Amino acid sequence: MTVPLLDLVAQYNSIRDEIEPALRSVIERQAFIMGPEIPALEQAIAELSHVRHAIACASGTDALLLPLRALELAPGDEIIAPAFTFFATAGAIHNAGGKPVFADIDRATFNVSPESIEAAITPRTRGLVVVHLFGQMAPMERILPLARKHGLALIEDGAQAIGARRRIDGAWRMAGELGTVGTLSFFPSKNLGGWGDGGMMLTQDEALAGRLARLRLHGGARQYHHEEVGYNSRLDSLQAAVLLVKLRHLQAWNQARRARADWYARALAGIAAVSPPPTDPANEHIYHQYTIRAERRDALLAHLKGQGIGCAVYYPVALHLQPCFANLGYSRGSLPATERAMEEVLSLPIYPELTEVQQGLVVDAIRRFYA
Ligand SMILES: *Cc1c(COP(=O)(O)O)cnc(C)c1O
């Protein structure tokens, strides 16, 4: 018996009867671009994320690119971002004309360290991108004052954190609620995944929402009238129809991921060579990934794959060490906690449909490796 890293077929089978009529209704109307599913999804996600405005777009990458473009960066303008994240975080900074400046992570949570952000601020810094990595939020209450003090835009990359929340001053705050802009991705493997690419931008600021909506449609609010040069970055109506159905299940799915994470944590507790991922006590984690640290990680990875157990390293090469950013002048040793994480992390299968039997196979295979 094998255990896949992710099983989207199992998820599809559980909602097939709801999704097919939703798709058929789009097909029968033939309104594939900006159909009524788009504002319906935007409103539902705005409510979930406690924001006034949600603007759907073509991908989580574009959801980062458009607000960065709205900053109108000049050559040499700097945007601080963690180096331990998916490539899009920094690729979008580069493509918006900015210079990525990389910050290190907190050893415990893998999230960007506020101290490292503060140390990276220069007179050229224009903004920060914070990533809520693997499904738990970064410490926004420590990062927001830095952004305010230095007049910086704060973008929350929430691609892995839809529905995640953090208790700040006694109130639950959603991923994407507090920054200048929050972003989401509907890439199929994300906690809310479409049947293709998709993304969403979140903001409380009405004027900025209008600007982002324009940038998504070739820079013009009115067709054939262009205030600025924008993009073709719409979400398809078919994708929105899929996402509206799946959104009804998201809370239960995130809860099921938490239950599976708790199960792993108990089962792995006796294996000294691995450490389960700690949750910051202020956070409600949505476990986009269940990422352990493991001794002899590469050998464990090969062993698990040999046993038919899906697992993966997110991320094997941090962004400050990517060849395309060599010109930025980083080297090994620049970001010690990030570099240690890329050598130690291993993500195990986690999804709502994962059974206890499957989890047992994963843990038994890990135990046998170290025995
Ligand atoms: C997936 C992801 C993105 C990009 O989203 P796409 O929809 O694939 O473009 C950006 N940032 C992070 C942290 C991600 O995990």
Question: Your description of this structure?
Answer:
By secondary structure, the chain is an alpha/beta fold. It folds into 2 domains: 8-247, 3-Layer(aba) Sandwich (Aspartate Aminotransferase, domain 2); 250-370, Alpha-Beta Complex (Aspartate Aminotransferase, domain 1), CATH 3.90.1150. It has helices at 8-29, 37-48, 60-70, 88-95, 114-120, 140-150, 206-216, 237-247, 250-268, 297-306, 336-344, 356-370; strands at residues 53-57, 78-82, 99-103, 125-131, 153-157, 165-168, 171-174, 181-185, 199-203, 274-275, 283-284, 290-294, 345-348. Helix 9 (250-268) runs parallel beside helix 12. The longest helix has 22 residues, at 8-29. The structure holds pyridoxal-5'-phosphate. Pyridoxal-5'-phosphate is lined by residues 59-61, 85-86, 88-89, 131, 157, 159-160, 185, 187, 197, 199. Pyridoxal-5'-phosphate binds at residues 59-61, 85-86, 88-89, 131, 157, 159-160, 185, 187, 197, 199.
Order of helices and strands: HHEHEHEHEHEEEEEHHHEEEHHEH
> Which ligands occur here?
pyridoxal-5'-phosphate
Distance between the termini: 21 Å
Task: Name the CATH homologous superfamily of the largest domain.
Answer: Type I PLP-dependent aspartate aminotransferase-like (Major domain)
Fraction in beta strands: 15-25%
Please indicate the count of domains.
2
Q: Name the overall outline.
A: globular
Unreliable residue stretches: none
Q: In what order do the strands lie side by side in the largest sheet?
A: 1-9-8-5-4-2-3
Helix content: 25-40%
Class derived from helix and strand content = alpha/beta
User: What is the total tally of β strands?
Assistant: 13
